[in-house]
Amino acid sequence: MLKPIRTKKEYKKALARIYDLMQSELKVNSDDYNELELLSIIVEDYEDKHFPIDLPDPVEAIKFRLEQLNLGISSLVPIIGSKSRTSEILNRKRKLSISMIRNLNRKLKIPASSLIEEYD
């Protein structure tokens, strides 16, 4: 019977069971397939509560997105405003403005929640 994970021991046991289930050929909607899906949800909930991952700071979010899109820093100039301003932002000498945040969100699809985080 599946139940919420409350201890590290239960967490490790659930991970081991997920591993075992993933080693076999599962048919969609079989009991094992459904067990794997439910265990994954339960493990994800436990991990969210016990191993939270902080959002990246805005500069790291921008750099990561550029890397994902295989774009260079120069592609930020039309979005941020100028080469010198882009440099100041990436070197953390200037903070992002609201219009920059909107442009980065709209044009590069960087989540606004990542862009509004506090950073040094």
Give a topology summary.
Layout: H1 8-22, H2 31-50, H3 58-68, H4 77-80, H5 83-90, H6 98-108, H7 112-115
What does this entry look like structurally?
This protein folds into 2 domains: 8-50, no CATH class; 58-115, 434 Repressor (Amino-terminal Domain), CATH 1.10.260. It is elongated. The longest helix is centred in the middle third of the chain and has 20 residues, at 31-50. The protein has helices spanning 8-22, 31-50, 58-68, 77-80, 83-90, 98-108, 112-115. The protein is mainly α and 120 residues long.
Short description:
With 120 residues, this protein is mainly alpha-helical. 61% of the residues lie in helices and 0% in strands.
The quaternary state of the protein chains shown equals single chain
The beta-strand count equals 0
What class, by secondary structure content?
Answer: mainly alpha
What share of the residues does DSSP label as strand, in percent? under 5%
Sketch the major β-sheet.
none
N-to-C span:
48 Å
Overall domain count: 2
Mean pLDDT value: 94
For the record, the CATH class of the largest domain is: Mainly Alpha
Question: How many H/I helical runs?
Answer: 7
Shape: elongated
